[in-house]
Amino acid sequence: MSFLARNRWWLIALGAVVLLVAGAIAWPSDDEDTSDIPSREFRLEVPEEPGSDSLISLDATVYLPETTPAPAVLLAHGFGGSKLEVSGDARELADRGFVVLTYSARGFGESEGLIGLNSPDHEVRDASALIDWLAEQPEVLTEDGDPVVGVTGGSYGGALSLMVAGTDDRVDAIAPVITYNDLVKALIPNSGTEDATPITSAGTPAASPFPDPGVFKRFWAGLLFTAGSPSVEAPPVASPELGTDDEDGEGDEGSEGARPTPEEGGTGDADGGTGPTPPGCGRFSPELCAAYVELATTGEPSQETVDLLADLSPARFTENITVPSLVVQGSQDTLFGLDQADANAREIAEAGGRVKVVWFAGGHDGSGTPGEVRDQIGAWFDFHLAGRGPDPGTTFEYGIPRSVAGGGGTRVRTLTAPEYPGLVDTAATEFQRHRITGDPTPVLTPAGGQPAAITGLPGLSGVLGGSPDVAGRLHRDVPGQVARFTSEPLAEAVTITGTPRVRVQVSQAPGAATSGTAVLFAKLYEVSPNGTRTLPGQGVSPVRVTGLPADGTPMEVDIALPGIAYTVDSGQRLEVAISTTDQAYASVTEPVTHVVGIAENTDLALPTTQGEHATSPVPWGALAGAGGVVALGVVLALVSAWRRRHSTDLVPDLEDVPIVISGLSKRYASGFTAVDGISLRVERGQVLGLLGPNGAGKTTTLRMLMGLIRPTAGQVRVFGHLVRPGAPVLSRIGAFVEGSGFLPHLSGMENLRLYWAATGRGRESAHFEEALEIAGLGAAVHRKVSTYSQGMRQRLAIAQAMLGLPDLLVLDEPANGLDPPQIHQMREVLRRYASGGRTVVVSSHLLAEVEQTCTHLVVMHRGRVMATGEVRDIVAGGHGYTFHVDQPERAAEVLAAMDGVSEVEAHDSSVQALLGPVRPGAAVTELVRAGIAVEQAGPTGRLEDAFLQMVGEESAP
């Protein structure tokens, strides 16, 4: 199966998920109830254009604290959202004692106007008009007639806070979160330069100072453009840290950004009545629409587009920002990387502003904004607006995510340095160097840029509950398109904080087209001793190299790899991979080959920062006295014994293998042998069908796989861990075996919540929305299960098994009670689920359904394995294949001449043969080389025929 075929459903499923992940951020309240915060709504009229008499209105709400007058905070929402999206955040800040003003930006929610993408003449002027309004309110604290006001927001709203601070001197403090500095560098990044100046000379840790446009970030740009189109009926585009105030995940009515279209009873005028926008522009201004169409169709910007994006960038205004600025960025963010926050911090410090930098383990691709980060934003405004609380200082804080063994989620270790390196009057970043080696490698850019490598697709880590290790392994490089250069195993652990740098050589391959341009994508992998590659942060650095000599002379290029905050343990290797394609970017479409090598005597330069981790001291005082010492000794002895007992529970070489079963048997006291010495191995990405007649041992095997019963002999390993009852690795399995056990007096939703609460894991990692979409129950999910049909119960059970998006999904007879359309839907769901790198095991007696759903089969009979392998091979029996060709007789001659092929028969329009050891692809290749047109190829026969041959008709299900 081709690379593209293996991954297309994974891409489709992921694309559907990331439609919910485009750029808003909020700071949802934790446990404190702030629902009684008083508020009032109003509409503010602002000029449609500067100096115009034509007005549009903005929909706004002000939240009032208990005591006034008080400092004010202007809180802006993310792209695709509205004021409703940040209502919880506003109440939280109001509860801290601030007057908080939220509003829907023009073109979103109930506000009129066209989206100008934070245009200085539109959205930025609107924000200043809102500050004018605040200055007139008696509840707002003023000084010399000016309101005391701070501005904050995430992504789109974060950029607005920067631009308002750079244009309106009434702003007193800002806190921009996961936002951008330069839209050209963010959306058309170029992470390489032919300049001979070493890029390690950059003082700040995540600097990527290359100014020229590079490669269009088409995946993210497409999502953003879609979020501004009324033709797409979608929820407000929000990053996974947001969620909604509605615990059912349905959101608040009115939070959709699109205004009514003519078909919905609206005017069709996104600006509130000044005339229609050009076709396909949605709510965007015509200039932005034209720029997007140009980039989406050509992949390269004109100078006019570059100038437009530059005019809409905070970088144009940061030289004017002198107010205290808390710069918050996520280290799991393929939309706006750490380099964007680095530039904001550096430029504000150069302007004279006081800067504190926080990197948290989240972002547009990550899990939720931690509560401590939200508290820091509140504390920043407490000190700089209200003059209360301790000085937050100008430290640099960064979170290092680590996955907990056994599927226990992710923990973050937060380190603090006295200052952000490389700012004014601070020491430059230190780099640790590691030699990397590897031979120069030819890399092919395929025609059309497909198949393409998969790295850094939007929202990936968020979908997986924010686990960096799991998300970091769901990547694909295409053979023949990638060059790899590797270090020796690290002698000691290193914590990377920022942008690693490397210098490579690029040349045109002999005889290649002489375009003089190469588009490459650079990644930094962590490679474990067993060869498993992890991509920290899921980031990729696009590089556009121009001016390559036609004679093949190498050109040296400095590359800034993706910025990360990540610890690489000792014994691990570091690998720089340079590929020619990436699914998230607009790559070159003309086929060409380049040669990539490491520049002579080049080291991989890793930025490091000396941070301290505040840990709570062990309460040794509580253990004082002889009794405490004895108790401690007993505990340590028990822990030591437990560790010795379980030291063989993990086989490191099998950590990436979902299932390995060795000599597994189950014999009951009655003497009946249900499973008799079976062995098999299941790989990632497979949909494995466990097929057999009643009594074959399928369900018993599944129950031993999940630790529900103990085997008589043999063992089961899941991701290298030995399966025992209660083993932690079982948390990585989602299962539906022998009945769902739903409580009939509760609704479907209540049953799902109750089940997830019983697992002891946090609600934020459950992914209820995805599970309910899979179930397809609609409003019925809120009805009592006692009213459900068998098919509805079955769909709810499948959704329950998929809660938490487990790495391994086990389903016993999932199609029972489903009608044909529902079976078809389930088939597609399972294929998509597995194609993302997860594994699905399905036990079923429906032969036709197994044949259409599964990629691999295990056929069991009387407790033994009768056959294993790919479905097509088992269906083919003795490897019988039929080829529909234009020259049957000639095709028969070609096949008969191949070693291992036998029983060749030519028919009117086809030829049949037993291929034996010959792969079908190799046979097709030989036929094509012989000038024979192959219209279709496939196994001869049906699964039913092969199954009956193995188990006999009397045993058939």
UniProtKB/TrEMBL annotation:
PROSITE patterns: ABC_TRANSPORTER_1 (PS00211), ABC_TRANSPORTER_2 (PS50893). GO terms for molecular function: ATP binding. Residues 230-241 have a biased composition (Low complexity). InterPro entries: AAA+_ATPase, AB_hydrolase_fold, ABC_transporter-like_ATP-bd, ABC_transporter-like_CS, Galactose-bd-like_sf, P-loop_NTPase, Xaa-Pro-like_dom, Xaa-Pro_dipept_C. It comes from the Bacteria. Residues 243-255 have a biased composition (Acidic residues). Coiled coil: none annotated. Residues 265-275 have a biased composition (Gly residues). This is ABC-2 type transport system ATP-binding protein. Residues 230-282 are annotated as: Disordered. Belongs to the ABC transporter superfamily. Gene3D superfamilies: alpha/beta hydrolase, Galactose-binding domain-like, P-loop containing nucleotide triphosphate hydrolases. Residues 659-887 form the ABC transporter domain. Pfam families: ABC_tran, Peptidase_S15, PepX_C. SUPFAM superfamilies: alpha/beta-Hydrolases, Galactose-binding domain-like, P-loop containing nucleoside triphosphate hydrolases. Keywords: ATP-binding, Hydrolase, Nucleotide-binding, Transport.
